[in-house]
Write a structure and sequence with these properties.
Chain A: Keywords: Endoplasmic reticulum, ER-Golgi transport, Membrane, Protein transport, Receptor, Transmembrane, Transmembrane helix, Transport. The complex is a heterodimer of chains A (215) and B (10). Chain A is 70% helix and 0% strand. Chain A is built from nine helices and no strands. In chain A, helix 1 (3-26) runs parallel beside helix 3 (58-80) and helix 4 (97-110) packs across helix 5. In chain B, 50% of the residues lie in helices and 0% in strands. Classes of the chains: A mainly alpha (215), B mainly alpha (10). The interface between A and B is medium-sized, with 21 and 8 residues.
Chain lengths: 215, 10
């Protein structure tokens, strides 16, 4: 484990905790896209199929359980919690799941490392993770007032992706035969999706004004 | 092998 990978995992963890904290303490999910959260739950459910069959490390297993547990509980909060669900902006969060899920599934059926159920699901989870943030970004653009926590959540997610790329560069030069095109290209696409958001995030931070994305 | 390295990421 290198420092970039650890920092990446920690920012990923922080992003999830920020979101859970917001929902749990303020009892509000305003500005949070249920579509994106459901897609993440699907991403983790399909990627961590090996959780009980292949033991890598205690760290790995615990992190997987945290990401699975947190993503499903966020979905539960927005859908079922009697106070939180009232703040859900259903009319603004209109992105269609299948618009992202179907192309990713087709791509996974065509481009994968091995044609086995687990490998296809694993490739699918990578492709879906790359685009799962889109409903959230669209919602942010529509919501004129982005609260600090939602802004920080998206920022931390983007930082996690950027750190993973540094991790791959590091591993490429330090580990023999560390070449994973599927992971890298999907990861690069995912990180690029945050570029626009990052630009406005830093601008608002630099000028000390509230974050607003242009329509 | 490449596969075992791959699966150690989250």
């Amino acid at each position: 484990m290198n420092i970039f990978r650890l920092a990446g995992d920690m920012t990923h963890l922080a992003s999830v905790l920020v979101l859970l904290l917001k929902i749990h303490t303020i009892k509000s999910c305003a500005g949070v896209s249920l579509k994106t959260q459901e897609l993440y739950a699907l991403v983790f459910a399909t990627r961590y199929l090996d959780i009980f069959t292949d033991f890598i490390s205690l760290y790995n297993t615990v992190m997987k359980l945290i990401f699975l547990g947190s993503s499903f509980s966020i979905v539960w909060y927005i859908r079922r919690h009697k106070i939180v669900r009232r703040s859900y902006d259903k009319d603004q969060d209109t992105f269609r799941h299948y618009f992202l899920v179907l192309p990713c599934l087709l791509l996974a059926l065509v481009i994968h490392e091995k044609f086995t159920f687990r490998e296809v699901m694993w490739a699918f989870s990578l492709y879906l993770e790359a685009v799962a943030i889109l409903p959230q970004l669209v919602l942010l653009q529509r919501t004129r007032n982005i609260d600090n926590l939602t802004g920080q959540y998206v920022f931390l997610l983007g930082a996690y992706r950027a750190l993973y790329i540094l991790n791959w560069i590091y591993r490429y030069f330090t580990e023999p035969h560390f070449v994973h095109w599927i992971t890298w290209i999907a990861g690069l696409v995912q990180t690029l999706l945050y570029a626009d958001f990052f630009y406005y995030y830093f601008e608002s931070w630099k000028n000390n004004v509230k974050l607003q994305l242009p329509a | 092998t490449s596969e075992s390295i791959l699966k150690d990421e989250l």
